[in-house]
Description:
Helix 1 runs antiparallel to helix 2 and helix 1 (2-15) packs across helix 3. By secondary structure, this protein is α/β, with parallel strands linked by helices. The protein has helices spanning 2-15, 23-31, 63-72, 90-96, 109-121, 158-161; strands at 52-55, 58-60, 80-84, 101-106, 127-131, 144-149, 164-175, 180-188, 191-200. A seven-stranded mixed beta sheet has the order 5-4-3-6-7-8-9. The protein is globular. The longest helix has 14 residues, at 2-15. It has a single domain (2-200), classed as Vaccinia Virus protein VP39 (Rossmann fold). The model has no long low-confidence stretch (mean pLDDT 94).
Amino acid sequence: xxxxxxxxxxxxxxxxxxxxxxxxxxxxxxxxxxxxxxxEALWDQAYxxxxxxxxxxxxxxxxxxxxxxxxALQLSEDDRVLEIGTGSGYQAAVLAEIAxxxxxxxxxxxxYIAARRLFDRLQYHNIVMRYSDGTSGWEEESPFDxxxxxxxxxxxxxxxxxxxxxxGRLVIPVGDQHSQELIRLYRxxxxxxxxxxxxxxxxxxxxxxxxxx
Length: 213
């Protein structure tokens, strides 16, 4: 009951109040138990208006950013979504509440194992995981209706753009190692259309087609 109220307050004050209007996104954010995706020591902060550490120098994004990126994907219940950077698994769980299937890739083994266990515990059977370099995408499962990248890239990886289906959407933070711009790509019959959703700050996207360690 305690966390249910905190989730409801989070959705109303942090997400709806800032203009997120997609009812599917609001419902997903109100359902996923965000506190379970951080350590128990941080449960009291889990629904706050800020990112939190999840170990291995990674973070769980601010709730509003999760909602904004999810809304930008314009998901339907039939969509297949690729997520680059599983982290603790929170963003994937939100996606899984809306989309048909979520494919998510994590390069840090401890995070991969913890997220897999949590997905099993919460019975997210429509989430498929891979332990790999996410910047290369998941070619054998492509094309995807939507791709979301939850770390900041120096540029948009062409490997991911090539794995978008016709009508596909890609949301990715692009910039330097300190601040980025949230970019939304849309693939239509005329090619790739690109728009900016504003400034943001994410940890580095590390991999062959991102930042090098």
